[in-house]
Amino acid sequence: MDWKKLSTTKITQVYKSIFLDLCYICNAKAQNTLCKSCHEGFPANLNHCQHCKRPTQKSSILCGQCQSSQPAYQVCIAPYRFEGIIKTLIHSIKFNQGTHYIRPLIYLLSEHLIESYSSESWPEQILYVPSHPSRIKERGFCQTKAMTTQLTRNLKELLGEKCPAIPKNNPLRKIKNTKAQHSLSRKERLKSPQSSYQLDGPIAKHVALFDDVMTTGSTIENCTKLLLKAGAERVDVWVIARTPDKEY
Ligand SMILES: [Zn+2]
Ligand SMILES: [Zn+2]
Q1: How many domains is the chain built from?
Q2: pTM (two decimals)
Q3: Residue 156 domain-assigned?
Q4: Spatial contact of 223 and 172, defined as CB atoms under 8 Å apart
Q5: Which residues have their alpha-adjacent CB atom under 5 A from ion ligand 1?
Q6: 3-state SS of 71-124?
Q7: Rg of the chain, C-alpha, whole Å
Q8: Comparing C-alpha atoms, which of 39, 41, 68, 63 is closest to residue 53?
Q9: What is the Å distance from ligand 1's center to 66 Cα?
Q10: Do residue 65 and residue 180 come from a single domain?
Q11: I need a labelling partner for 106 at 20 to 30 A (CA). Which of 116, 150, 211, 231 fits?
Q12: Which residues, 6+ apart, have CB-to-CB distance to 160 below 8 Å?
């Protein structure tokens, strides 16, 4: 975060949220980063496809896309829908210097993961879907890297030894600077070429792949296939939010 660009009010707000147990969004008294009423306003992804977590009208179904071709990843964890406050916060992190929102969002994802893995074995390694170097230069940071670092910090506190390792250098690299996913039509997104990413480095047998938002799932699917090809036996996808289909 570039502190020079922040106003004094913003700095005070961030300071208060870090040190005084105040809600990161509305500044009310709160435990663990968010107050109850802000938390309740988050769009939980309750009804979704069993496998890819695409938001659906009814729960516990398999969406048309998964029925015609099952995704390569084993599990997808996506606690929220990419709409409302979640969309505002993630946009703010990416485009508007809102990096202090990483903490509450990742806190919520961590809680969800702890619940989901209560009777499952944890992945050995966490990797993330990175941005292209030129986009990182433009924004000044890679939001998925910052989020994964925070996520590992949280999980380490909660899990100790069992916490998946984060490699010093993320083995996944984005080598093609494709247009931002959100600026493409669905048809264009599905066409996004596989060769946008490259893998370089040792991969564990059971890997968690983190991204902030999953839209069509094509980026995640391409990265999963690269990981499987490189020796991973199981890939679990962890995202904060899943985008509902336009027609939904
Ligand atoms: Zn609040
Ligand atoms: Zn599905």
Answers
A1: 2
A2: 0.86
A3: yes
A4: yes
A5: 23, 25-26, 28, 35, 38
A6: CCCCEEECCEECCHHHHHHHHHHHHCCCHHHHHHHHHHHHHHHHHHCCCCCCCC
A7: 18
A8: 63
A9: 37
A10: yes
A11: 231
A12: none
